[in-house]
Amino acid sequence: MLTEDQIARYSRHIILKEVGGKGQKKLFDGKVMIIGAGGLGSPIALYLAAAGVGTIGIADADVVDLSNLQRQVIHQTKDVGIAKVLSAKEKMLAINPELRVNTYEEWISAANISEIIKDYDFVIDGTDNFAAKFLINDACVLAGKPYSHGGILQFDGQTITIDPGKSPCYRCIFPTPPPKDAIPTCSTAGVIGVLPGVIGTIQATEAIKYLLGKGELLTGRLLTYSALRMRFREVPIKKSGKCPICGDHPTITQVVDELDALNVCDLEK
Amino acid sequence: MEITVNGEKTAIEEMSVLSFLQKIDIDPKRVAVELNLDILPKADYDSTLLKGGDQLEIVHFVGGGR
């Protein structure tokens, strides 16, 4: 049962017929893991906390840097130098003290990813490198765990939701990571500060819809966004029989680190 | 002949997917290509000829997030 304070806090949710008291309870019982407490992770964490998602995990080994504040809106000037996960936890609990926030001050790898995502209902990729993006895909597909992929660079973003077994996965589109130097890094290429807000809030919306069991997920279609042209496009994607992890003859049967795709954005530090 | 590239109709001469990417200045290493709803394996870019009416989607790798 919701308390009087909860009914007041979530009243704009509760009057939605797709949510109601029952849906709000589902959100409160829901567990979402956010990997990356940066550009994408910031709006995701803020909105999921405000929405009353009861258990939120957040993983990142980085500390807040002055150059993050142009877009990583969960962190503030006073937080420079402190762990991003702690800064993020403080803001989430300030919005909503009832939540349980689990922090993982570590980089994800093949060694820890399965354990980190194990207890969560839905995973959100807010990472900044292909090694992590492929690792999250592989771990979620192998564990049968739904997740939201997100990517941003310069003025362009993309996102797709993966419901393993039921929908195409990231490797159905991109079977292998790009060669190491093919894609510019965040620091050399830049990113417009508002961009992660657009993509991140879409990813948070997917988590909320998944927990509510309402609406249509962004599966089987890659949503691409160009801020410069102010255009959204949907690219229909089919499950690929040749997919190395969810195809007819998978070659990937356990999580491995894609060493050739290591942290493109970490190279800048 | 006419093909559709990322939702926009484009007139081109007959050529392979690889030649088309080169013509529009796209590094094949940075993209995935979907031809008539199927992801085209990179090894087939050179040997696959575009035909009138083809639907081509060129999707860039976007790896940022922070």
Characterise this structure:
The complex is a heterodimer of chains A (269) and B (66). Chain A has 269 residues and is an alpha/beta fold. Helices cover 33% and strands 17% of the residues of chain A. Chain A has 10 helices and 8 strands. Chain A has an 8-stranded mixed β-sheet, with helices on both faces. Chain A is globular. The N and C termini of chain A lie far apart (48 Å). Chain B has a single domain, classed as Ubiquitin-like (UB roll). The longest helix of chain B has 7 residues. Chain B is globular and about 40 Å long. At the A-B interface, strand 5, strand 6 and strand 8 of A face strand 4 and strand 5 of B.
Q: Give the termini separation of chain A.
A: 48 Å
Shape of chain A: globular
Q: Could you say what the CATH architecture of chain B is? A: Roll
| CATH-defined superfamily of chain B | Beta-grasp domain
Helical/strand content category of chain B: mainly beta
The biggest beta sheet of chain B is recorded as: 5 strands, mixed
Shape type of chain B: globular
In CATH terms, what is the fold-level topology of chain B? Answer: Ubiquitin-like (UB roll)
How do you describe this structure in short?
The complex is a heterodimer of chains A (269) and B (66). Chain A is built from 10 helices and 8 strands.
Secondary structure layout:
The complex is a heterodimer of chains A (269) and B (66).
Chain A: H1 4-9, H2 11-14, H3 20-29, E1 31-35, H4 41-51, E2 55-59, H5 84-95, E3 100-104, H6 113-117, E4 122-125, H7 130-143, E5 147-153, E6 156-162, H8 170-173, H9 186-189, H10 195-212, E7 221-226, E8 231-236
Parallel strand pairs in A: 1-2, 1-4, 2-3, 4-5
Antiparallel strand pairs in A: 5-6, 6-7, 7-8
Helix pairs in contact in A: 4-5, 4-10
Chain B: E1 2-5, E2 8-11, H1 17-23, E3 31-35, E4 38-39, E5 55-60
Parallel strand pairs in B: 1-5
Antiparallel strand pairs in B: 1-2, 3-4, 3-5
List keywords for this structure.
heterodimer, A: alpha/beta, eight-stranded mixed β-sheet, 8 strands, 33% helix, disordered C terminus, B: 66 residues, mainly beta, 5 strands, globular
